[in-house]
Design a protein that fits this description.
Oligomer: homodimer
Number of helices of chain A: 8
Helix content of chain A: 40-55%
Strand content of chain A: 5-15%
Strand order of the largest sheet of chain A: 4-3-5-6
Chain lengths: 198, 198
């Protein structure tokens, strides 16, 4: 026996394809949408098509945007000579939320992962090297602290250093507020290796 | 500094209004949608508008559907003389998934809650009483086991009993697989009160 009619099933189906949304959450979302005022549901649908249609990559940093340049690259108050390399736009957002970083970014859209068959050509590395032909003082590598992120960081540093540009890696260590006893050994050792003089 | 361009912000905003979706999940969903193939994103948007536009209440049981009668009320294999009263379509779905209930349903779309200002007229009670003027053998009250659910169950039973129709309430007790030591006292006492002869 089909529980719901076809269109409701289709909506549940569509929601359950989204990441982190299981069958049950999809059902909850679908019923929520069905109980929304009509304009609000249309608003959600419109936001999806509108954003998807107009979205493109910033031609400088490859952040997602709907203009030629993202707001960060278009801003005069950002230092274009410092480039932070991140794996994806969410990582950019995380750093941007600190409000303290005044340089610009470069979004790789992935990390090198031989396991998943992602090589240097599958991510936006060539585009980074092109950018480095302009005046750049420092490249800060802020890929994730995972196997893939570290491998990508090593790869980039080897490419960039010969050009005489300063390359740095964000610190690995104990998160602020972290309890030593709950932190894994690899992190503890990284924190020890990366100790700074007081 | 605006992190994303306007349309991306709007999409994140829309997603974060959905139940159980925080700011961070909304961002993840938005980026997922932006990375989808265009047709897939349009498919999601279309499913939302299409379902919302066409959805209505089943004129018998008030389940959500896109026809006059929901698949359950329209089916010949269901016993129309047994009506299970539930608070909302998700509860109906939960029972329907058992595959063992062969009667029909009545969806109240809420429960009586003086705290929230929801009285008997705000839920589909009048419609239930109208249905009881046809031949009905039993009304099974399957509202939630919360304060509001119990109050609604009591209220309905008082209304229905004088009509000479059998009224029952689904059992409250230890969930199957539940460990007695982890179960709250109210449930333990309910299970004791509701004990059945072996």
């Amino acid at each position: 026996m089909e529980l719901y009619s076809e269109k409701i099933n289709r909506l549940i189906e569509e929601f359950s394809r989204l990441p982190g949304i299981g069958r049950k959450s999809a059902q909850r979302l679908a019923f929520h949408v069905l109980n929304m005022p009509q304009e609000q549901a249309e608003g959600l649908a419109y936001a999806i098509t509108d954003a998807r249609r107009s979205v493109c990559y910033c031609k400088e940093c490859f952040n997602l945007t709907d203009r030629e340049l993202c707001p960060i690259c278009a801003s005069d108050s950002r230092n274009k000579r410092i480039i932070m390399v991140v794996e994806n736009p969410r990582d950019l957002a995380a750093y941007e939320k600190t409000g303290k970083y005044t340089g610009v970014y470069h979004v790789l859209h992935g990390a090198i992962s031989p396991m998943l068959g992602i090589g240097p050509n599958e991510i936006r590395l060539k585009e980074l090297l092109l950018r480095l032909q302009q005046d750049v003082d420092e490249v800060i590598i802020a890929t994730n602290s995972s196997l893939e992120g570290e491998a990508t960081a090593m790869y980039i540093s080897k490419l960039v250093k010969p050009a005489g540009i300063k390359v740095s890696r964000i610190a690995s260590g104990i998160p602020v507020g972290g309890d030593l006893e709950n932190i894994d050994e690899v992190t503890l050792l990284k924190a020890l290796d990366g100790r700074t003089p007081l």
